[in-house]
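Supplementary Methods, section 5.1.

A reviewer requested that the exact input to the structure prediction be made available. We therefore reproduce it here, unchanged from the version used in the analyses.
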Amino acid sequence: MLKKLKTAFKLMWEHRWVTAQFITTGLARSALQVGYIWTVKTFLEAIGKSVGSEGAARFQATLWGAAGLIFACWVGRSVADYFSKVLQTELGRRIELDLRLKVVQHTLKLSLSFFDKSTRGDIIKAASVDVASLRLLVDTTCATVTALLGAIGLFFAAIQMNPRLSLWALVALPLATYPVMRIGAKLLQASREARFHGVHIMNLLMQILAGIRIVKAYRGEKREAEACQDSAKDLFEQLMKVVKIRSLSGVIFDSLAGFGVVFVIVFGGMQMLNGYIEWPVLMAFVLILNQLFDPMRTVMHAYTQIKTMTVGIDRVDELLATKPEIEDRPDALPLKSAPHRMTFENVTYSYDSAPPVLKNVNLAIESGETIGVVGPSGVGKTTLLNLAVRFYDAKEGWISFDGVDVRRIKLADLMDNIAIVTQEPFLFNVSVFENIRYGRPDASESEVHEAARAANIHDDIMSWPEKYETIIGAGGTRVSVGQKQRINIARAILKNAPILLLDEATSALDSVTEKQVQEALDKLMADRTTLIVAHRLSTLREADKIVVLANGTVEAFGPHAELLGTSTTYRNLWDAQQRESANRR
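The structure derived from this sequence is encoded token-by-token as follows.
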């Protein structure tokens, strides 16, 4: 708990002005609360003296004076409460906003390997629900600070009234510590289980939304709904377990606190009968004790609350502590001009502890060349492109541009020199115009239109009611696959990068659409160094050279005509596709 409180105070220190205002209102509230009780005690003590010595006039003046002070303290405490709650909320929301932005910025810097290992549900939960846990931690810490300030004032007032009775009143508090600590351990485990089930149901919902067409086409609505129901039931049971455990801690504390109140009444009553204290002191003391247990209950509640939030807080800490696997070295060099030669030297790569996907790959690609990459499924074609763009780093060997290891080149410069068109075109839920100029946010309207014309998509866009202001829809659901791909090509054309990576860019298209996209690609590839992963070998016949991958290694590297005679793998793939094409005719 102390570690979490330290985290909270560190976050609060980043907004020290708001924190200072909050603590000031807490001190004011505590002082007014003590002043209220002290006024009541003083008034009770003055009753007998006023009535006995100077009669009704003196009593009436005392009564009105006490009433005025009590009312002022009560209203003042309410006003302090108001500002305290407003400042507490402002502090928590400011911290939550800053943390959410920090988590998003940090996550965007992480390497692709992090996203390969993490589920989307876990990342989204960390950036939303878990970040909210830190805001709740700050809220809880603020409530604890307020409670402690109030408890300290009340405790010193009680000590001043009767030190002996004050110590006896708190005898039950240590007894409550052990069972609450035991409950805290169970609460932490139950919270872990609840978060696990929360991530599971979020992943399930995201999977359903991503595959909604398949769900409907195969009439899987009932099955998916039942899966969600089962997952929601598991989450509900864990959340209820958390609630029950937390509530049990409250029962234990309140029971022991009640024992303390009863003990004070009995012990204080005996002292009053024996003449050690007067009845106004006992009445004020019981009033103090009743209010003292409220902040102590808040502290106990804070302990269980922090245990509940620990899992989410730890996940945010873990995420922010994750270092990118791919980042600039301290001695990283700028890429001053477009590279003239890309070289793969003894490149080997494997995903974690799995067997190598690529082994001892050696290639030399000259500026302006079009290089095809072919081979059976799962042989590492896309991995080769990912290594070229440094989404991953080779486990062994290296990739160099003009003799400089890519790991020594600044990432920003490397990315500026590369454009990518993937098999599954991705579009943002913004206008067509913003989608096309995503790689060059400063591009002019005429440049965007020129890129769209080169990609054979301008006429389609102009036929839409909103033209370039048409909102694509999440994932580009409002346009056809061919149109999405041509918009992606327009984006790559506008970037005007010297190196182009095409990963199965036409494999999901029909023959008519493929022709349109291929025409756009031909314009895009002009005067650029291009690596093309393609399933249809016919699209690579005009490539300068073709890399044939088999069993993770380069089986052959040469032009189409040469490979037909020198590469068994390439010949088999070509013959199979030719037979398939003949059968379709």
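DSSP finds 18 helices and ten strands in the chain. These observations are discussed further in the main text.
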